[in-house]
Design goal:
Order of helices and strands: HH
Shape: extended
Strand content: under 5%
Number of helices: 2
Distance between the termini: 38 Å
Radius of gyration: 15 Å
Largest sheet: none
Helix content: 25-40%
Length: 62
């Protein structure tokens, strides 16, 4: 993170889950829930890393 004059290591955790019953709206501001088939999920994601892992999951889940 050179813009902050810091050295940092990014840590990423990927969770593979099954949907359950929705208990309420998302608690984080500006977050929404999207129920979509795995084949089209990557197109909805906002960054390249998330799209990469969603695409890999779609390829290997069938």
């Amino acid at each position: 993170m050179p813009e902050y004059d810091l050295w940092a290591e990014k840590v990423c955790t990927i969770y593979l889950v099954e949907p359950g019953r929705q208990l309420g709206p998302p608690t984080e501001p500006f977050h929404t829930a999207h129920w979509t088939p795995i084949e089209s999920a990557a197109q909805l994601l906002g960054n390249a890393g998330d799209r990469h892992f969603a695409s890999m999951l779609a390829r290997y889940s069938h």
